[in-house]
Amino acid sequence: MQIANGIYMLELSVPVMGRIDVIHPTLFSDEEGAILVDTGYPGLLPRIQNAMEDHNVPSHHLKTIIITHQDIDHIGSLPDFISKSPQKLDILASEIEKPYIQGEKMLIKITPESIEQAVASLPADISPEWRKAFRSALENPPKGPVNGILEDGLELANCGGIIVIHTPGHTPGHVSLYHKQSKTLIAADALVVSGGQLLGPIPEYSVNYALAMQSLKKFIEYDIEAVICYHGGLYTDNVNQRIAELAASPI
Question: What's CA 233's distance to the chain center, in Å?
Answer without folding.
Answer: 11
